[in-house]
UniProtKB/TrEMBL annotation:
Keywords: Membrane, Signal, Transmembrane, Transmembrane helix
Annotated protein name in UniProt: Metalloprotease
UniProt-annotated location(s): Membrane
UniProt topology in membrane: Single-pass membrane protein
Organism: Nonomuraea longispora
Keyword Calcium: no
Coiled coil ranges: none
Highest taxon above the source species: Bacteria
PANTHER family assigned to the protein according to its UniProt record, in alphabetical order: INNER MEMBRANE PROTEIN, PUTATIVE MEMBRANE PROTEIN YPFJ
InterPro entries: Uncharacterised_pept_Zn_put
Keyword Membrane in record: yes
Leader sequence segment: 1-23
Family matches, as Pfam families: Zn_peptidase
Length: 294
């Protein structure tokens, strides 16, 4: 049994997880319209309720495209290497798996907290909820096949540990998934998502897909920027990273019957942009041309 074989098996295991990973947020393969509609109502409800007397002003602010295209988070440079110590992830230990998820989340909190400080934007951490079976969230039902989920109305990242992953955990895949979900939290806290959800609620179906792609591709790029901080040989090899990107290039779109996450090559491109630059400034999918967000 040679090394590359073993590696391929490992990667495949991890990437099953990652596919689900990109998936979960609001873009639900089958029940798409129902789930998406309920989620967007939740999304809209939050600002308008909070708006109160300042409602009119809030409404125009929330619709402001520059929140997405010119956000201050883009001008914060590279994510700081927070010397993340994730520890090992042996198979079969739920306790070790939970510890790993918690540690990666702490690293994400530190790295992104520092970016928000640089941007002089208020920041708050997401909650992490580790689950071993599917749950309903305030954003709707758990989508089949998803292993992670970010719900913006309670700002919670849900991470599902399945028996299969427990048997054969792939740390790179799991970290990438968490960083993607965290990317949605960054979009939420920086108010990029205020523009997204407002625009989305007004859009027709093909425009909705186009907006969804910009949102998902950005989360993936933010994920890449964080993954770059782990590139020190302790967490994963260049070979593993390249394998992961190639896997997405070929398979990243397959879980989505509608093109709401972008084509495989487009996903791979934004992952790589984030990773190569290490900076959220490389992740401005909202100002990118339509042909770069296909
Ligand atoms: Zn996503």
């Amino acid at each position: 049994m040679n090394v590359s074989h073993r590696f391929a098996a490992l990667a495949a295991a991890g990437l099953t997880l990652t596919v689900a990973a990109t998936s979960q947020v609001f873009v639900l393969p089958n029940a798409a319209s129902a789930s998406v509609a309920s989620v967007s109502q939740v999304q809209q409800a939050a600002p308008s309720v909070a708006g109160g007397a300042a409602g009119a002003q809030s409404a125009s602010a929330f619709a402001n495209k520059s929140l997405a295209t010119k956000n201050r988070i883009y001008r914060t440079g590279r994510l700081t290497d927070v010397n993340c110590r994730t520890g090992s992830l042996p198979s079969g230990s739920t306790a070790a798996y939970k510890r790993f998820l918690t540690r990666v989340t702490n690293c994400l909190n530190t790295a992104w907290g520092s970016q928000f400080r640089k941007a002089r934007l208020p920041f708050s951490k997401p909650r992490l909820r580790i689950i071993t079976r599917k749950v309903n969230t305030p954003c709707g039902k758990w989508s089949a096949g998803a292993d992670g989920y970010y719900c913006s109305s309670n700002r919670t990242m849900y991470m599902l540990i399945t028996r299969k992953q427990l048997r054969q955990p792939f740390p790179l895949g799991i970290a990438r998934l968490m960083a993607h979900e965290y990317g949605h939290h960054v979009q939420q806290v920086s108010k990029i998502w205020s523009y997204y959800w407002t625009a989305r609620n007004r859009a027709g179906s093909s425009q909705r897909l186009a907006l969804s792609r910009r949102s998902e591709l950005q989360a993936e790029c933010f994920s890449g920027a964080f993954m770059r901080t782990l590139r020190d040989g302790r967490h994963f090899s260049d070979q593993q990273w390249n394998y992961t990107v190639n896997w997405f290039r070929q398979n990243g779109h397959k879980a989505w019957p509608q093109n709401d996450h972008g084509r495989g090559p487009t996903q791979a491109k934004w992952m790589t942009r984030g990773y190569n630059s290490g900076s959220p400034g490389a992740c401005n999918t909202w100002a990118a041309s339509a042909r770069n967000t296909t």
